[in-house]
Amino acid sequence: MHIRGDHAELAVGGRLDVRSAADARTVLHSAVDSGDGDLVLDLAGLDSWDATGLGVIMGAHRRAGRCGRRLVLRDVPPQMQRLLVATRLHRILAIEGGLPVAETQILTKP
Description:
This protein is of the alpha/beta class. The chain contains four helices and five strands; from the N terminus they run ββαβαβαβα. Strands 1-2-3-4-5 form a five-stranded mixed sheet, with helices on one face. Helix 1 (21-33) packs parallel to helix 2 (51-66). The longest helix is centred in the middle third of the chain and has 16 residues, at 51-66. The chain is globular. The model has no long low-confidence stretch (mean pLDDT 88). Belongs to the anti-sigma-factor antagonist family. It holds the Pfam family STAS_2.
């Protein structure tokens, strides 16, 4: 896993999982704490994430809210979009451009 950027925009690549969670959490919290306005996470280079990685994203989202900021996900890969819809986290997280309407409707039907 690698994260590049500053307190306004970070590009996340590789795998965000239990092995990289602690490092990712440190970088994300530092970025949230040192800036203002939206913090954009560009996920185009992210290969995969597990439940721990998703927890890191949610933790950064909560921390950003407490700091008066907003965490915004950009270029969420399709397999991760499906996980966000399945867990209904797409309703909580800010996703730049949203998710494709057809996919969201298919995955959220009862």
